[in-house]
Design a protein that fits this description.
The protein has about 180 residues and is an alpha/beta fold. It has a domain of about 100 residues. Helix content is about 25%, strand content about 20%. It is elongated, with a radius of gyration of 33 Å. It starts with 5 loop residues before the first helix and ends in a 5-residue tail after the last strand.
């Protein structure tokens, strides 16, 4: 009679895989991925949506300024009124930049005439860089410290110094 080998008689206990070192290495790997990732800063420029209405404007009010700036690749045209009438055209200078100082000066003159107006409509057309649009927006929106002070009556009837020219910028037509 044959004897059964002793190794078959003994049952080996089931060995379980130790997952703790693998889990530790995965968490360390995730940590290093997060630390080495570069996070993007996204900037947003606020703009209002244009309002479209079929209603007639009230008769007792004066005509609105309806200021708009058509920005093309080589020139900008400032218009006002409905229907729009051109006020002035600004071409690119030899260095490739728009003449924003002249635009700013014309807008200061308009702001003195229309103290309550805060809206301008931008109509960008053609290939314009983001930087060009932001520079034009800054020239339209901000009053510099060196500019002549402009005052208007507030709700209490007290003169207050204006801090901005045309702060509400509406994009009239956006192209991709």
């Amino acid at each position: 009679m044959l004897k059964v080998p002793s190794s078959r008689k003994r049952k080996k206990p089931d060995e379980k895989l130790n997952l703790v070192p693998i889990m530790d290495s995965i968490f360390i790997f995730i940590f290093f991925l997060l630390m080495s990732a570069t996070f993007l800063k996204i900037y947003e420029i606020g703009s209002d949506v244009p309002l479209i209405s079929d209603a007639e404007p009230p008769k007792d009010q004066k005509d609105p300024l309806a200021l708009s700036l058509k920005i093309e690749t080589n020139q900008m045209t400032l218009t006002r009124g409905v229907p729009s009438r051109p006020i002035q055209t600004f071409t690119r200078q030899p260095d490739g930049q728009f003449n924003l100082e002249e635009l700013h000066t014309v807008l200061i003159g308009l702001k003195k005439q229309y103290l309550t107006e805060d809206t301008i409509i931008f109509e960008p057309q053609g290939d314009l860089t983001y930087e060009d649009i932001v520079k034009v927006m800054d020239a339209v929106r901000k009053l510099n410290k060196t500019d002549e002070a402009i005052y208007r009556l507030n709700k209490e009837g007290v003169d207050e110094k204006l801090k901005e020219l045309f702060s509400k910028i509406i994009f009239g037509n956006l192209t991709s």
